[in-house]
Design brief:
Rossmann fold; 14 strands; amino-acid transport; Alpha-Beta Plaits; 321 residues; four-stranded antiparallel sheet; D-methionine transport system ATP-binding protein; nucleotide-binding; alpha/beta; six-stranded mixed sheet; single chain; ATP hydrolysis activity
């Protein structure tokens, strides 16, 4: 659905060039929820703005739904953008318009007839859970309600792709969870492809099927979350399942074990039937795309056969000490 190759974008700041996006390749499959994770200044927002060509890249190709956006003239690009919705961190609502009016605005831009606009607005208000708030103004809404209006507006033209620019970073944890549940529900009900940027590991954990870690304009790792969990030294795995540092455990070998799938804890269960070890910390959690677990174990006796057993049963093992 989204295919990016060799993307580069450079800005000039205070007399020097800053490479905001540096040779990024990205593939987001149809119906996927893909998260780009990184700290401020990593290049996430520039990448997202390039996807809908609000920023024109210096190099590279961006294809959405089979259409090469980088090759389009201004008129054709404007039409192509109707198939790409976008939600913003700070909502970007029109303060002089009601909930219904803000959603209708997106349809006015596309030239939707008045009767069709009214029907579509009603449908969207129900879809995002704002029934009864049609006539409220943004100043009368909570942060979560404002973001629901933003989501409804982004979906007005029935896009197949939704871009999310830190959509939950201005919200409290409970409201964040409700918005993430809504996005995941929309993904599943509408077959919506979602590309989101975030600095919050919890967002990736809760709704992303695939993810990339971005730093200094580059992806340092990228792929399905379940696969990245099994990569040796994966930043994503360490971020999703942080384990406290332990320098030593007398008489034992310390290892970190990562496993995923419906039977994520099966390798440990099997190990417990054959060997003696202690679980120092860890957990099993349900991610958006899979069930996964990560543990720190203290192995007693000969560690080699225990490590081999875990690896033979699909677990990723890192020796800590």
């Amino acid at each position: 659905m989204i295919e990016i190759t060799g993307l580069r974008k450079t800005y000039r700041s205070r007399g020097r060039e800053v490479r905001a996006v540096d040779g990024v390749d990205l593939t987001v499959g149809e119906g996927d929820v893909f998260g780009v994770l990184g700290q401020s200044g990593a290049g996430k927002s520039t990448l997202l703005r390039c996807v809908n060509m609000l920023e024109r890249p210096d190099e590279g190709r961006i294809t959405v739904g089979g259409v090469d956006l980088t090759s389009l003239n201004r008129k054709r690009l404007r039409l192509a953008r109707h198939g790409i919705g976008m939600i913003h961190q700070h909502f970007a609502l029109l303060s002089s318009r009601t909930v219904a009016g803000n959603i209708a605005f997106a349809l006015e831009v596309t030239g939707e007839p008045r009767a069709a606009r009214k029907a579509r607005v009603s449908e969207l208000i129900d879809l995002v859970g704002l029934s009864g708030r049609e006539d409220a103004y943004p100043s009368q809404l909570s942060g979560g309600q404002k973001q629901r209006v933003g989501i409804a507006r982004a979906l007005a033209a029935r896009p197949k792709v939704l871009l999310s620019d830190e959509a939950t970073s201005a919200l409290d944890p409970e409201t964040t969870d409700s918005i993430l549940r809504l996005l995941l529900d929309l993904n599943q009900r509408l077959g919506l492809t979602i590309l989101l940027i975030t600095h919050e590991m919890g967002v990736v954990k809760k709704i992303c099927h695939s993810a990339a870690v971005m730093r200094d304009g580059k992806f340092v790792e990228s792929g399905p979350v379940a696969d990245l969990l099994h990569h040796q030294g994966s930043e994503l795995a360490h971020g999703l399942f942080p384990l406290a540092a332990r320098s030593s455990e007398p008489g034992a070998t310390l290892i970190d074990v990562t496993a995923s799938g419906e039977d994520a804890d099966a390798p440990l269960t099997g190990l417990a039937r054959r060997f003696d070890f202690r679980i120092l910390e860890g957990s099993v959690e349900t991610l958006a795309a899979t069930r996964a677990g990560r543990w720190r174990l203290a192995l007693t006796g000969d560690a080699a056969p225990q490590i081999e057993f875990l690896r033979s049963h699909g677990a990723q093992v890192e020796v800590v000490a």
